[in-house]
Request: fold
Amino acid sequence: MDASEARRHVEQLGRSARRAAAVLAATTGLQRNAALRAAAGAIRGRRADLKAANEKDLARRDEFGLTQAMVDRLTLTDKRLDSMAAALEEMAAQVDPVGKATAAYDRPNGLRIEKRRVPIGVVAIIFESRPNVTSDAAGLCLKSGNACILRGGKEAIHSNLAIAAAVREGIGAADLPAAAVAVIDRPDREIVPALCRAAGLVDLVVPRGGRGLITAVTEAATLPVIKHYDGICHVYVHADADLAMAESIALNAKCQYPGVCNAMETLLVDAAVADRFLPAVADKLRAAGVELRGDDRSRALVPDMAEATEDDWRAEYLDLILAVRVVDGLGEAIEHVNTYGSGHTDAIVTARIGAADRFVTEVDSASVMVNASTRFSDGGEYGLGAEIGISTDKLHARGPMGADDLTTYKWIVTGRGHVRE
Reply:
């Protein structure tokens, strides 16, 4: 497919999605919730078809050179299918974000001013590997009154198409336009820039994947993009930390699921407690299979630790590898996080309220944890249900993105024949 073909294909999908978005904008939350529940039922009812489609993708794992971690993300188990359906039902149970007034007041001249949340329109979501993103993204867009165009990775194309068909079945059962959810069925590279430049048809682009994908989308786009860059997440063990708590949090943040963006990649330990904390936690991390890379002060306490380089402080390993540094106090920890972090999720373990408050105020990240694992920074744990992703941008959304973040707003001004003098 050449660039002009790709452009025509995207324009065709975009026009259908734009018409569907206009219909959705006029629906009630009850209608959209009915579609979500019907889509959940269709996923459960089509379980055999979805697993058969997934097997077609898994059969090509060697062709695409997928690692075992990528194969794991690609595989649709019964548990994952149940989770996908449950996520759609959870969205249906949530408060409708559309029409919500975020401000309402009367002016001295009698005008009534309201600021009300409305759908964005057509959202293009470009993602890799995980087929559950298809149902999550489609569901969140539907909940927020948006149409969506989804472009998944070629390694999951059969799974993505089958999931989208199930979601569209649910949408149709609720008498809403199936074109509200479109999946691009062509793996051609030319599709991505065409999608990112479809002004007038697409309103927002959300890339969800590795840095390479996000960079490619950002460089190609002439439309607004919400980015979900690296998760270089830190846990800082403060001088006044409960060390048993700190050990539990560090182990969970690194080991519970190391291949995700909110796993800890750097452990910072205050010099005041390093000799008591670091050797013990290092033993437990190594027992869990973690490779440790430390600065000189860390290695003085744990001699068999590998030497960390400057690159390690900027690394998103997504693996059982951890950078370790001993710091001289809270200020140096904050400086390290803001210098090397990605603005995703960072945590402090401390019993001192003043230290926690300073960390929360000065660390420039989308999520800041106090005495809790970084692994909590996702939509489900925040009560948002499924999420489009975890934004490291500051505009228009930051952190886990739920249905509310797929709306914008409009101003409504009501008068009684008012004219301006």
